[in-house]
Amino acid sequence: MKICKNIAELNDWLENYSNDKSLGFVPTMGALHKGHISLLEQSIEDNDLSVVSIYVNPTQFDKKEDLENYPKNDKADAEMLEKAGCDMLFLPDNLSIYPNGEQILEFDLDGLDSTMEGKYRPGHFQGVITVVDRLLDLIQPDMAYFGEKDYQQLAIVRFLAEERHPETEIVGGRIIREPDGLAMSSRNERLSEEQKEAAAIINEVLEKSYSKKGNMNVEAITAWVRKNINLNPHLNVEYVEIIDPYTIEILDDIEEDTEARICVSVWCGDIRLIDNMPL
Question: Hey, what domains does the chain have and what are their CATH numbers?
Answer without folding.
Answer: 2-173 (3.40.50.620), 186-278 (3.30.1300.10)
